[in-house]
Amino acid sequence: MRHLLSTEDLSLSDAIRILDTAEEMAAVGEREVKKLPTLRGRTVVNLFFEDSTRTRISFEAAAKRLSADVINFAAKGSSVSKGESLKDTAQTLSAMGADAVVIRHWASGAPHRLAATDWIDAAVINAGDGTHEHPTQALLDAFTMRRHWSKLAGIPSAGAGLLGMRVAIAGDVLHSRVARSNVWLLRTLGAEVTLVAPPTLLPIGVDKWPCRVSYDLDETLARGVDAMMMLRVQGERMNASFFPTTREYSRRWGFDDTRLRTLDTLGLKDTIIMHPGPMNRGLEISAAAADSPRSTVLAQVRNGVSIRMAVLYLLLSGDSRGPAGTSKASPTTVTKESH
Ligand code: ASP
To answer: Is 132 in the pocket of ligand 1 (CB under 6 A)?
Structure first.
């Protein structure tokens, strides 16, 4: 089996291998010819049961840069909307010769189900399942943080983790697969994580997660933060009222202009502001914060392509010499079974 389903079971060496391979992929992106022949003749299917802009386009760009054939399959407009099951869809894709299936699904656990059955013999990559996990988002976030953290330390990124980096993740943790995947991966990489949210937007059992939990964003900033990650308020997953008003939410838990100035007052001159997108400007993040020089929002999007190239490469390529013919990375070592 060779899948990327979650970050919870990703070992430190596997995580570092993906990040290092992504560095090599980023270097390829800076060449005049940005394409590698590595996955020529392989087919990657983007199977999206839920809306996406960044993730789908990013996987498509990544697969194309590795010369794979890409089939985009959106549930809307397909037979899925006529009631075709995940099983039938998977078997159809299998018959079409898919080597990798990148799946986004509203049901938590759908990618695991696909990987655990014999419906399809392809690498399964979780591109976001319900409120559960979004491993490639966490990897691109970690990649972005690692570049920043190693630059501050004056060391090369390659091989490094995030030891001692203070990361705060604030907002709608309850509905966020990004928060979950980040907590697991950041713990593995050695960062100190604090989740900040109103009590109503924290999941049951969060006290057992490997992180600090706070209800107070200002208190968290005052303790010192190197990366401030804001989460989108996920209105589409809310079936009740989780906070009094949007005004109250942004005043207490949004990264607004006042908090942007607070970073300077606190002497946190190197703190970066992150957001996975799509942003609700004016709610969880102000326009000034999103567009400030501290913001890594666009770098995260750019890094996403390198991370997805690395994951596709490691899962699909049989070439253990690395993408540029230099790395010692072994494509088999990224799987769950390998540790
Ligand atoms: N794009 C991310 C996700 O799919 C974050 C979000 O939607 O808020 O989970």
So the answer is: no
Q: Give me the CATH number covering residue 254.
A: 3.40.50.1370
Please indicate whether residue 111, judged by its CB atom, sits closer than 6 Å to ligand 1. Answer: no
Is residue 261 a contact partner of residue 288, using CB atoms and an 8 Å limit?
no
Cβ of 128 below 6 Å from ligand 1? yes
328 in the same domain as 255: no
Which residue's alpha carbon is nearest to atom 4 within ligand 1?
Answer: 128
Ligand 1 site, residue 105, Cβ cutoff 6 A: no
| 2 within a domain of the structure (yes/no) | no
CA 153 / ligand 1 centre spacing (Å): 30
Encoded tokens for 84: 């075709």
Q: How far is the CA of 25 from the centre of ligand 1 (A)?
A: 24
- DSSP E strands in the chain: the ranges are 43-48, 69-74, 100-105, 123-129, 166-170, 192-196, 212-214, 227-230, 272-274
For residue 11, give its domain range. 7-131+304-338
User: Based on the domain organization, do 273 and 319 belong to the same domain?
Assistant: no
Domain count, the chain: 2
Of 246, 253, 104, give the one whose Cα is nearest residue 173: 253
Same domain, 16 and 83: yes
Q: Are residues 81 and 173 in the same domain?
A: no
pLDDT, position 83: 63
Mean pLDDT of the chain: 91
The model carries a pTM of: 0.92
Verify whether ligand 1 is closer than 6 Å to residue 276 (CB atom). yes
> For the chain, what is the largest distance between any 2 Cα atoms, rounded to a whole number of angstroms?
60
pLDDT per residue as tens digits for the range 148-178: 999 999 999 999 999 999 999 999 999 999 9
d(CA 193, CA 210): 8
Instruction: Indicate if ligand 1 lies below 6 Å from the C-beta of 232.
Output: yes
**Do 161 and 12 form a contact (C-beta atoms < 8 A)?**
yes
**Which token pair is 330?**
């072994």
Cβ–ligand 1 distance for 177 under 6 Å, the answer yes
Quote the ligand 1 centre to 129 CA distance (angstroms).
10
